[in-house]
Amino acid sequence: NPQTEYAGAGLVWLQRTLPSYTPAATATPVATPLPTGTPPAATAVPAPDVEEIDADMQRLLLTNRRLDYYWLRAEGLAADEEPFVGDGRFFPPTPLEQEALQQEAEAWLRDWLLLEDDAAVSQLAPSLAADPRLVVGQKLWDAGLFEAAKAEFENLRASVADDALLSYQLALYFREIGLYRSSILAATAVLNLSGQTAFEAPKFIGQLAYPTYYADLILPLADKYEFDPRLQFSLVRQESLFESFARSGAAAQGLSQVIPDTGAYIANLLRWPDFVNEDLYKPYVGLNFGAFYLSQQLNTFDGDVHAALSAYNGGPGNAARWHNQAGSDLDLFVEIVNFPETRLYIERIFVGFVIYDYLYSNSE
Question: Distance between CA 290 and CA 276 in Å, rounded?
Answer without folding.
Answer: 16
